[in-house]
Design brief:
By secondary structure, the protein is of the alpha+beta class.
Length: 791
């Protein structure tokens, strides 16, 4: 058999360097997306499809006496109207939380076990009670308006602290005082002793506001059922097909995994919200089976505000104990998290567990306790939202530090420096119970001061004062404990046309996975960047994986790619040895070529894959280079950083403008700096939204009063400053690439930095605290009240 020879390894390496790890390679999918050629769920249609519309409660709380569907069923084009009673014989499983959380007394989290359509009570405005399917969307919508729900209103409660009080309206008979989880972490006795011996204690009551996710793409779904195979198929936007398929099949539909085919195409944002299954999906799957026709449902923005999970929503009392030199002795949090009306996905985790895991941040805080009651209220259900407890915890800690510095008369920068964990202390066991493997927090801090020109602030403040405005600055550090350990899929398939399919269980919903994953695969196997085709959205291909969430993608899929690539090389060495009639021990691999050591005889990996497909190999020689590999649990990482914000405030109007913003971050090994910067920009933008304007509000009866973009403010381009971004990478030691998550870091760094900068500007009025959002009205009122008090 003739050897296949080709250019030298050096020549072959040149294109690999262009697209290698660390290069700012442009995103593969951008040309498709910016031309409007992406395919989102609502773009898909099936022959014979019909349309669904959901009937929702207009009451925040009430007893369902009956639902009259007769008029709706008689309307033109209507194929069916279903209530919860109609779905009951199917015996679908409930929507629940899979986290093994326990209350302080050891009892497990109390589940709400939500059904797709309610039959006993409604518990928030927007609660689904029925759905209609008709030939056209207009017919379904008209018929839905003819459904009459007879509901006896009950008193509602939207504030978690009020909901937990005796005598408050009860959402569930089996959940006393509406407290589903009374979470506790830490050694209370040791913490109390530390506080008792402290030279100073800082206390703060902080409201972390409820925010709506408002992804660019509303939720949608297209369901069908094949009677012959008894198989459901659903096209739906998710954050990972494998996990969502398993939950849908095993826990809700109660069928084997192979009886559910879940497809996800392009996804227009999610931020945690689309990573759970929702009632609407069960409704249309049920209808598709009953009618024998595909059923499509697409949400609208007005109902998205009601039906999509929300984020944040905490009322927390924070305390920090310090010695006379300002060294941290202990920190404790207590308070309430608002679960909304139902528990699903991981919703109690961000409100409790994740806050505790991230509270210690980059500081040597030897002791901590977290006591948070997660409480059910008559509001939209809570879920993960970009950071899912990480930005919240860092916000609490950084607010405490600035306040403590002011109270003790210690420079804010000095106080932080005195408490940083030092590089030589790594690995560091934090009081949160996790062990940091790497980091140079002082180095990150110093670089942020340098890039932001912190020393020049006094001059800039003086110039701002001449214009009649206030100027404030804040510097804040953060650290995130990324997603808990879980397995990941790395599947590599060499195709006939010379392309390489990479299949993994994370999912791109805006991050740009195709590019960095191809960069990693190219670095491992030397395959051309353009030849790599990423597939993540088909549960028939993606049998394993935990999806994208918790800033895990590059670490989890990266580790899977590295491990799978090693298996490809092992197979390739055996195959190349056979084809080139050499000993396997003499075969070397580099830059995409298998070479007989000490010779110029080699074969390219793509050519080798082709030869294996076309020829019959003897026993012991691989018939292909394809690999289907699942990792062991991929460890968490600890991305961290330091952000600096400067703001200007017009005291006459209360308008806040962010005029300078700097973010220096340690994301470990950076695969694609351009994409990392983009992720940081997006996270900071969402932090700006929450800090300055976003806030979901309800009136006393539980009616949402921020149900559209007319009354729910979102940041625009003019609200987002130019950002200076710096890197101070310390590669992680817990994964082969050395990467750390970056997707949620912008939120973790921006919340406290922006709020602290505003309060710094307002400090000359003696204003020490304002809760988010720092709207012009809130800022203006605080100034007026401070002036009146001073007078």
């Amino acid at each position: 058999m003739q050897d296949h020879t080709s250019p030298s390894s050096l020549e072959n390496a040149i294109p690999l360097q262009k697209f290698g790890v660390g290069q700012p390679v442009r995103r593969k999918e951008d040309d498709t997306l910016v031309r409007g050629k992406g395919r989102y769920t609502d773009d898909f249609n099936l022959p014979g499809q019909v349309f669904a519309w959901v009937v929702r409660s207009s009451h925040a709380h009430g007893i369902i006496r009956g639902i009259d569907t007769a008029a709706a069923k008689a309307m033109p084009g209507v194929l069916g109207v279903w209530t919860g009673a109609d779905l009951a014989p199917a015996n679908y499983g409930p929507f629940a939380c899979g986290l093994p959380l326990k209350s302080r007394d050891g009892t497990p989290l109390l589940q709400t076990n939500r059904t797709a359509l309610m039959t006993d009570k409604v518990r928030y405005v927007g609660d689904p009670v029925a759905f209609v399917v008709a030939e056209t969307l207009a017919q379904a919508r008209d018929a839905a308006e003819a459904v009459v729900a007879d509901i006896d209103p009950l008193p509602a409660v939207t504030n978690p602290e009020e909901a937990a009080k005796p005598g408050a309206p009860q959402l569930y008979d089996h959940i006393p005082n509406n407290v589903a989880l009374d979470y506790h972490y830490g050694d209370a006795a040791k913490v109390e002793a530390a506080f008792a011996g402290a030279a100073h204690v800082t206390k703060l009551d902080i409201v972390n506001t409820r925010v709506a996710v408002v992804a660019m793409e509303p939720r949608a779904a297209l369901a069908s059922y094949d009677k012959a195979s008894e198989r459901y198929t659903i096209q739906v936007p998710t954050q990972g097909v494998a996990g969502n398929r398993t939950n849908l099949a095993k826990n809700i539909l109660k069928v084997p995994n192979e009886k559910v085919h879940l497809l996800t195409a392009n996804v227009g944002g999610s931020f945690g919200m689309k990573n759970i299954n929702y009632p609407e999906y069960i409704c249309i799957l049920h209808a598709a089976k009953a009618l024998g026709r595909p059923v499509k449902w697409t949400d609208e923005r007005s109902t998205s505000f009601l039906s999509d999970s929300h984020g944040r929503a905490q009322q927390i009392h924070c305390e920090l104990a310090l010695d006379s030199e300002g060294k941290f002795l202990a920190v404790k949090l207590s308070g309430y998290g608002n679960l909304g009306a139902y528990i699903a996905g991981v919703s109690p985790g961000p409100l409790s567990l994740n806050v505790g895991k991230n509270l210690a941040s980059v500081y040597r805080t030897p002791l901590m306790t977290v006591d948070i009651k997660t409480v059910l209220t008559n509001t939209t259900l809570m879920g993960a939202y970009r950071g899912a407890g990480r930005p919240e915890a860092n916000y609490f800690m950084e607010r405490l530090i600035d306040r403590a510095a002011d109270e003790m008369g210690i420079n804010r920068l000095t106080l932080r420096k005195r408490n940083f964990i030092k590089p030589q202390q790594m690995p560091f066991e934090a009081s949160s119970g996790v062990t940091y493997d790497s980091g140079d927090f002082q180095g990150v801090f110093n670089k942020a001061l340098e890039i932001s020109d912190h020393d020049g602030f006094a001059k800039r403040k003086k110039e701002t004062r001449k214009q009649g405005k206030l100027r404030g600055i804040a510097i804040g550090s953060y650290l995130e404990v990324t997603a808990p350990p879980s397995v990941e899929l790395g599947k590599i398939v060499f195709e006939d046309d010379g392309s390489v399919r990479l299949i993994t269980g994370t999912l791109d919903y805006g991050q740009g996975h195709a590019t960095p994953f191809a960069q990693v695969l190219g670095a491992q196997l030397g395959v051309p960047f353009e030849s790599v085709k990423l597939e993540q959205g088909d549960s028939d291909l993606v049998h394993t994986g935990n999806g994208t969430g918790g800033s895990r993608s590059i670490t989890a899929s990266g580790m899977a790619i590295v491990e799978a690539s090693k298996l490809v090389v092992e197979k390739g060495k055996r195959a190349a040895a056979h084809l080139m009639e050499a000993s396997e021990s003499d075969i070397e691999f580099a830059n995409g070529r298998f070479t007989i050591a000490g010779t110029d005889r080699s074969i390219d990996i793509i050519e080798l894959a082709r030869r294996l497909r076309e020829g019959k190999m003897p026993e012991g020689v691989p018939s292909s280079l394809d690999v289907d590999h699942t990792t062991e649990a991929v460890p968490s990482t600890f991305p961290n950083g330091c952000h600096v914000a400067e703001v200007e405030i017009d005291p006459e109007t209360g308008i806040v403008q962010i005029v300078r913003y700097t973010g220096v971050n340690d994301f470990g090994t950076i695969v694609n700096p351009m994409l990392v910067a983009g992720q940081l920009h997006g996270g900071v933008a969402q932090g700006i939204g929450q800090a300055l304007m976003e806030h979901v509000n309800y009136d006393a009866s539980g009616q949402p009063i921020t149900g559209s973009f007319m009354d729910y403010a979102m940041p625009r381009a003019e609200d987002i400053p130019m950002m200076a971004v710096g890197d101070h990478p310390v590669p992680a030691k817990s994964n082969p690439l050395g990467t750390k998550g970056c997707g949620e870091a912008g939120c973790a760094g921006s919340l406290s930095t922006i709020v602290n900068a505003v309060l710094d500007a307002l400090s000359e009025y003696g204003i020490a605290h304002i809760d988010m959002p720092l709207t012009p009205e809130r800022v203006w009122r605080a100034i007026q009240e401070a002036k009146a008090k001073a007078a």
